[in-house]
Amino acid sequence: xxxxxxxxxxxxxxxxxxxxxxxxxxxxxxxxxxxxxxxxxxxxxxxxxxxxxxxxxxxxxxxxxxxxxxxxxxxxxxxxxxxxxxxxxxxxxxxxxxxxxxxxxxxxxxxxxxxxxxxxxxxxxxxxxxxxxxxxxxxxxxxxxxxxxxxxxxxxxxxxxxxxxxxxxxxxxxxxxxxxxxxxxxxxxxxxxxxxxxxxxxxxxxxxxxxxxxxxxxxxxxxxxxxxxxxxxxxxxxxxxxxxxxxxxxxxxxxxxxxxxxxxxxxxxxxxxxxxxxxxxxxxxxxxxxxxxxxxxxxxxxxxxxxxxxxxxxxxxxxxxxxxxxxxxxxxxxxxxxxxxxxxxxxxxxxxxxxxxxxxxxxxxxxxxxxxxxxxxxxxxxxxxxxxxxxxxxxxxxxxxxxxxxxxxxxxxxx
Length: 415
Known about the structure:
Helix content: over 70%
Number of domains: 2
Number of helices: 16
């Protein structure tokens, strides 16, 4: 039975294995860099770095413009057509460069009108986010060659880690953190371009206005979906940094990193299987994958609850044990979000319901903002309250996606 499933999903299992190597690196490297940064920079300066990265994340969504989903679909569809692949690559990179220039212009203009303390850290974080956005991970995902994604991610993280350990010596070196991430991403960008040139994917052709508008139009739904997702993902950090303090940002960030270390496993499953299900619409196979995701996400949640003390002390020190108070609530996100994401990508998007996917994200965002406003009006802004608000919005997102599956007669893909 196991051999049968392996043969059936040989490429996907191989891709997931490569992505799992990336995930292993994502879990191990923070064991080194996170305690180091907390101890070297201090909680407040570390919180400032995280806060600046959250600002940059908003711009990164604008720069990527949904290409991480739309371009992946297109590459998967035209994987044997070198001319079409070159067209996709040139248009995507050109648009991302244009959106970066717009972003840097907006940020510099804002700093000129409203002087901000520590503005350099925001600019460096944006530059690092831009270089990371340029990495053609969407291309390698589309052709189902996850070994290149593994190579890109691991090299970037290792180089960044080495730079951080060498160049961050005291609390005044907080500016070097985004610079180190920038160096790592820039190095693997050149490696990625070398791979693409070697495979004759890149040809120096300028995109036409018609083709640029075509890619803009077709990516619009995905960029708004990504924007709504990042608004939920990063607004908690923004609210904590604004109303509570940078120490709360540091606490929240540590808990979020623990949760995402496990959540990323299921995100990798989505990445590995999305191109396959885009080409092969098979309800029974989708149902099997969703069931596996549910079982292992539940086990992950139980693991975090049982071993939270050990995990926290492994990543930091006793002063951070305070995050236990809300970690078990935040960890529920692993189950809810993994199921919601799988249903959204494997069922709604695969079957052509991208607009419904967009409206679903809009409902989730409005729910989140309404709950946050309710909390702000009646209670204090706190980590626990914001975590509950976020998880409730994801639960609404999941339930609405199940409703959409029923509406479009796709429930047989889920149960």
